[in-house]
Write a structure and sequence with these properties.
Elements: E1 4-9, E2 12-20, E3 25-29, E4 34-41, E5 47-49, H1 57-62, E6 69-71, E7 77-78, E8 82-85, E9 88-91, E10 100-101, E11 114-119, E12 122-129, E13 140-148, E14 153-160, E15 166-167, E16 171-173, E17 175-176, E18 190-193, E19 197-199, E20 212-213, E21 225-226, E22 244-248, E23 257-263, E24 269-275, E25 279-283, E26 306-311, E27 326-327, E28 333-343
Antiparallel strand pairs: 1-2, 2-3, 3-4, 4-5, 6-16, 7-10, 8-9, 11-12, 12-13, 13-14, 14-28, 15-27, 17-26, 18-21, 18-23, 19-20, 19-22, 22-25, 23-24, 24-28, 25-26
Length: 348
């Protein structure tokens, strides 16, 4: 398997690699250990690229959408960019107003990773986060492996270690449109989430610390229903409306458990997401608009894709009853995510 040059950034070469298992094809780049293309067939075998992204490196550098990126060190939001670890106050980079988001202004999504291993259907990226980088204590060795299985799934495994107690919550941030990138909004996609509870947020999208039942709310996706069915009932938010919320998954931490199912009625493509993590952030792309030009010149729009980010809960360092997110020396952080694709007959 050969790599190719995707671009050059500040004198460093960004490489691209394409994986294939005969049915699914994935293209990845070393900038942000990022998934840039994912070609998946429909029920008739016709492939479409089902993730949002760009054709060139400069567009990825310029965007704040996190298309396809590995986000960290702590993905999602931390209020005030501050937390405590073992009684010590930690000040993190504040890159969303007064708050910390997705690892800071130069998070894992901005690193040029190294290709550590490569074959026809898998690639492993590696990088290092130095002590105090973006405010996080400890030197951490990082790894992300993408593997296409023969069963039609893309498996993602994110690992890390540390030499000081630190926070760790790495997230894969692809936006999915199962009809094909650039084909319009995903509000007609059907979504099911294996979670009876969610974590509410305030007007700035910071978690309140509450855990509420989804029953009889717009957050009830326990059975398959359209993404946009109750989206108008949500309160306005800084991300253009829509969902940008965390669900508490049934199954919690540890063994792989089902997180969500997404289905496009037009193509019949189905995505099933499984994870080892306790939470799922669903972001419906409310801040996307037609000023964003995606791959092949496709002009995007509001709600052009939905991100399904398996994770620790947002704001976990500030709430003792949220899942623990501290990584200690001698421990290995390991986050697994499985994206399994099938296809049903499309609706007429």
């Amino acid at each position: 398997m050969q790599t190719e040059v995707f671009g050059v950034l500040e004198g460093q070469t960004v490489e691209a690699v394409t994986l294939s298992n005969g049915g699914i094809k994935a293209r990845l780049i070393t900038y942000g250990a990022r998934l840039t293309e994912l070609w998946v067939p429909d029920a008739l075998g016709r492939p479409a690229d089902v993730v949002l992204g760009f054709d060139d490196l400069q567009s990825y550098v310029a965007t704040d959408t996190y298309f396809g990126a590995t986000c960290g060190q702590y993905a999602n939001r931390i209020a005030g960019g501050r937390c405590r670890i073992d009684g010590t106050d930690i000040a993190l980079d504040r890159n969303e107003g007064h708050n910390h988001l997705h690892g800071g202004s130069v998070g894992f999504d901005r690193k040029i990773w190294r290709i550590a291993a490569l074959d026809d259907n898998s690639v492993t990226f590696s990088a290092t986060s130095e002590d105090s980088e973006m405010g996080f204590p400890g030197r951490s060795r990082l790894s992300v492996r993408y593997h296409l299985t023969h069963e039609g799934a893309l498996e993602i495994e994110m690992t890390a270690d540390t030499d000081k107690p630190t926070l760790m919550n790495m997230v894969h941030h692809s936006y999915f449109n199962l009809a094909g990138q650039g084909t319009g909004p995903v509000l007609d996609h059907d979504l099911q989430i294996n979670g009876a509870f969610y974590t509410p947020v305030d007007a700035t999208l910071l978690p309140t610390g509450e855990i509420r039942a989804v029953a009889e709310t717009p957050f009830d996706f326990r059975t398959l229903r359209p993404v946009g069915q109750e989206i108008a009932a949500l309160c306005p938010s800084p991300v253009g409306g829509g969902y940008d919320h965390n669900w508490c998954l049934d199954g919690r931490n540890g063994p792989m458990h089902a997180a969500a199912t997404l289905r496009d009625p037009r193509s019949g493509r189905v995505l099933k997401v499984s994870t080892t993590e306790p939470g799922l952030q669903v972001y419906t792309g409310g801040c996307l608009d037609d000023r964003i030009i995606g791959k092949k010149g496709a002009r995007l729009c509001r709600f052009a894709g939905v991100a399904l980010e398996t994770q620790k809960y947002p704001g976990s360092p500030g709430f003792a009853h949220f899942p623990d997110c501290i990584l200690r020396p001698g421990e290995i952080y390991r986050h697994r995510m499985r994206l399994e694709f099938t296809a049903d007959a499309p609706e007429k």
